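F.,

This is the one I mentioned.
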């Protein structure tokens, strides 16, 4: 790997570490709508990295669109539970852990049986969906964050299919590091 690529990757990882998880979720309730829901996955570093990470891992495993599709479906179920008032203790720490675990799966090029990888991705999605359902409790916001999440998952999946193995694994290490930092801040 070239020194320039390593520097760029390190710089990107450092920028990811600057975001605080608390900044990802404040005050959406007052202005929740399609645009607020759509913007959220791009402005919340935890969600952004989780979506890209799940997509990258799915693309890396050449499993097509199963992981992204599973994530979206389970995130919708989690959002509905959050909108109904179901709260999960330690949710922010759990969400940060999903980022670290997705990054670790990429870094290790983890090849799990399909049922296990989809189950793991589904659990990640329930946590993210639940948080969004609590924070953006209207249907239009849910449509917005599902659309944006689908875009990020697809981008990650495509990138995971075309990126060189070493670069992809290094991206996994950076995502893992960001997840660990987010866990410490949650």
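My design for it:
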């Amino acid at each position: 790997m070239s020194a320039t690529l390593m520097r760029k990757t390190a710089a990107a990882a450092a920028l990811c570490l600057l975001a605080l998880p608390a900044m990802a979720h404040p005050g959406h309730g007052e202005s929740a709508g399609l645009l607020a829901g759509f913007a959220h996955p791009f402005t919340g570093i935890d969600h952004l990295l989780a979506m890209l990470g799940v997509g990258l891992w799915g693309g890396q495993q050449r499993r097509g669109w199963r992981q992204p599709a599973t994530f979206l479906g389970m995130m919708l179920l989690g959002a509905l539970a959050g909108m109904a008032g179901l709260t999960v203790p330690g949710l922010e720490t759990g969400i940060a852990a999903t980022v670290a675990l997705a990054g670790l799966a990429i870094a290790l090029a983890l090849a799990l049986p399909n049922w296990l990888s989809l189950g793991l991705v589904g659990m990640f999605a329930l946590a993210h969906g639940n948080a969004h359902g609590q924070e953006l409790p209207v249907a239009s916001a849910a449509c917005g964050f599902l659309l944006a999440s689908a875009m990020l998952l697809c981008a990650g999946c495509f990138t995971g299919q075309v990126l060189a193995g070493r670069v992809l694994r290094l991206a996994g290490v950076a995502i893992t590091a960001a997840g660990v930092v987010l866990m410490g801040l949650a």
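Residues 55 and 157 are 4 Å apart (CA to CA).

Talk soon.
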